[in-house]
Amino acid sequence: MDVKYVRTTCPYCGTGCSFNLVVKDGKVCGVQPYHRSPVNEGKVCPKGTYAWEFVNREDRLTTPLIKKDGEFVEATWDEAYDLIAQKLKSYKPDEIACLSSARTSNEDNYALMKFARGALKTRHIDHCARLCHASTVAGLAASFGSGAMTNSILDIAESRCVFIIGSNTFEQHPLIGRKIAQAKMNGAKIIYADPRLTATGKQADLYMQFRSGSDVAILNCIMGEIIRNGWEDKEWVQNRAKGYEELKAVVLKDDYLPENVEKISGIPAEQLKTAAEWIGTAESSALLYSMGITQHTVGVDNVKSTANLQMLTGNIGKRGGGVNALRGQNNVQGACDMGALPVVFTAYQKVIDPAVHKKFADGWGFPDGICESKNGYEVTVMMDVLTDNPGELKAMYIMGENPMLSDPDITHVEHALKSLDFMVVQDIFMTETAALADVVLPATCYAEKDGTQTSTERRVQMWHKAQEAPGQAKLDWQIIAELAAKMGYADQFPWQTSEEVFNEMRSLTPSYGGMTYERLEKPEALHWPCPTEEHPGTPILHIGKCSHPDGMGVMHPIEWKPPAEVPDEEYPLVLTTGRCIWHWHTGSMTRRSEHLDAEVPTGWIELNPEDAKALGIVDGEMVKATSRRGTINVPAKVTKDIMKGVTFMPFHFAECAANVLTNNVLDPIAKIPEFKACAVKVEKIQEA
Ligand SMILES: Nc1nc2c(c(=O)[nH]1)N[C@H]1C(S)=C(S)[C@@H](COP(=O)(O)OP(=O)(O)OC[C@H]3O[C@@H](n4cnc5c(=O)[nH]c(N)nc54)[C@H](O)[C@@H]3O)O[C@H]1N2
Ligand SMILES: Nc1nc2c(c(=O)[nH]1)N[C@H]1C(S)=C(S)[C@@H](COP(=O)(O)OP(=O)(O)OC[C@H]3O[C@@H](n4cnc5c(=O)[nH]c(N)nc54)[C@H](O)[C@@H]3O)O[C@H]1N2
Ligand code: SF4
Ligand SMILES: [Mo]
Question: Where is each 4Fe-4S Mo/W bis-MGD-type domain found (predicted)?
Answer without folding.
Answer: 3-59
